[in-house]
Amino acid sequence: MKTSEIAEFVGGELHGNGDIEITSVGSIADAKGGQIAFFEKLSDMPPNGASCVIVLAGFTASQAETSVGSVSLISANNPKLAFARIARVLHPQKSRGPEIHPSAVISTSSRLGSTVFIGAFTCVGDNSRIGDGTQLRAGAKVGDNVNVGNNCLLHPNVLIEDGCIVGDGVVLHAGVVIGADGFGYVKDSPTTPSPEAAATPPQAGGELVKFPQIGTVIIEDDVEIGANSCVDRGALGVTRIGEGTKIDNLVQVGHNVDIGKRCVIAAQTGISGSVVIEDDCVIGGQVGFGDHVRVQSGAVIGSQAGVLPGKIVRPGVWWGTPIQPLDEYKRQNAHLKGVERLKAEVKELKHRIAALENKK
After folding, report:
1. Is 101 a catalytic residue?
2. In this predicted model, what pLDDT tens digit does every residue of 115-133 receive, in sequence order?
């Protein structure tokens, strides 16, 4: 793809040779001839071997020449975004098919779209539908009465349980489980508590009776879920992942959780049952949610935060356990860091007071 074509594609302004052929992308530190990189600062560009660099609007050609010699530039308001878009063109998602591997087990009542790829040792259950252009890689399992949309990619060993719905363009990475039973049990105490004691901790002993987990999961279009994540089915209703949401590896989504559109959820986050995360939220890694939390649109929650059950998280940046606004969290952190100094000062004051008392 020529640099002039790339500039037009990303909506940038080309400075330099528009006929250079670009075949792949690279980092600003390691790019070589024939590659395109990006640089987000207005300072001098570090030495690199890229044939073209996407730079921040306002970056001058002289800054490139003084640091790396002559190089073609494409200026853009958001170089990283422009780079990501052209990378998707130069490095398209690997595609296979159409093919149905002879080892696949496919129900005669299932419906397969055109140009599907069904890999080795895959299973498609009764009355399930696999949309046009969808790929089931080796070992993927689709249960009964499942609807998988068009142009989806199920990586190896993905499992979609009975009755779940997956939209178009969904990517499920290796080991993802969709529609496993939610984690819900009711304590059968040895004695029946009085109404006044209903709020007390459960008594020792007694059976844990499983609450029914007979709902479903709906995953909307263009969702991507990372390796070994799990989205539990609703207990009696629906667990929903909204359109365009991206979920990292090793994330647990509990039953009846409702996640909005375009959310980003980082690795090792655990979301308890009946949590609502509205549109355009950002959740850092290892965040823990209690049940029935509501996160309002636009909220950002920092890594390793703990959100207590029933909490309403309003728009803004939040951190800590229990969760609190970032400014308050930073203020408390500053106080904690001063404890040792305060302790030493108090100790010194005690010595001085003791010395004064001894003089009396």
Report:
1. no
2. 999 999 999 999 999 999 9
